[in-house]
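Tokens as discussed.
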């Protein structure tokens, strides 16, 4: 492990992941970690900073979104050359706070529908294998009640990369895992943990993958559009349910605080 990595993330209001992002980001910008350097494994970072695997994965995703690192599945995460300019740049710690997933899903329907079509005609066998690995990881984590967000995002990012147009991947990398709806709506946490819900999501992924694998752009576009439209609808329903629950809670509090309500 690089000696410059030792330390613990600053504990701020936005949590351990944000502190880890700041600490690693400072080391990258300060050239303690240089372009091309391979970061330690998740387990090594967990040990060095005393945080959970979930915190490490969230932090790495935000660093990737900020364009500071890039992960190569099965190889590791590497520090990137600093970009001098770019349209899609936000502070990594601000991404989750600033994003409206419903609005982004509307963008994704247009963006990723076309990306799926392009990927089906341009993808390499290596890229197809990377998509397959992401889906296999997703399925394995469903069975083990593990993290499904990272492989979900990786699947979509691999499709963007397979377009051969770097801007598709740049946009996806910038947004990071916060574009996955279930990371944003706590009210549906019980639903999103269920194997049934996640299996339904993965079936939609498999339809996209199958179309890309057989070089079928129209089917790939249709499958991606269906998947993201379904995601938008699931999120809309969850938000409405959350709003109703909040109203009921407020009404119950009002009833109990009213004069004479204590009986």
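Sequence:
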């Amino acid at each position: 492990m690089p000696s410059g990595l030792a330390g613990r993330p600053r504990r701020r209001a936005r949590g351990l992941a944000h502190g880890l992002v700041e600490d690693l980001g400072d080391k990258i910008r300060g050239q303690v970690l240089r372009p091309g350097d391979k970061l330690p494994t998740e387990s090594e970072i967990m040990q060095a900073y005393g945080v959970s695997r979930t915190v490490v994965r969230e932090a790495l995703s935000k660093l990737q979104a900020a364009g500071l690192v890039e992960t190569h599945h099965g190889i590791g995460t590497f520090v990137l050359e600093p970009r001098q300019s770019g349209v899609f740049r936000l502070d990594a710690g601000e991404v989750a706070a600033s994003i409206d997933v419903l609005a982004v899903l509307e963008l994704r329907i247009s963006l990723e529908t076309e990306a799926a079509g392009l990927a089906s005609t341009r993808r390499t066998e290596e890229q197809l294998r990377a998509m397959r690995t992401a889906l296999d990881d997703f399925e394995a984590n469903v069975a083990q009640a593990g993290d499904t967000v990272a492989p979900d995002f990786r699947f979509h990012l691999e499709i963007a990369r397979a377009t051969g147009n770097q801007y598709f991947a740049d946009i996806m990398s910038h947004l990071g895992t916060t574009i996955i709806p279930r990371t944003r709506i706590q009210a549906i946490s019980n639903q999103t943990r269920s194997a049934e819900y996640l299996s339904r999501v993965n079936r939609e992924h498999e339809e996209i993958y199958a179309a890309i694998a057989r070089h079928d752009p129209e089917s790939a576009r249709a499958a991606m559009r269906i998947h993201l439209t379904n995601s938008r609808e699931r999120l809309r329903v969850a938000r409405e349910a959350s709003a109703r629950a909040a109203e009921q809670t407020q009404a119950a509090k009002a009833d109990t605080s009213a004069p004479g309500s204590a009986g």
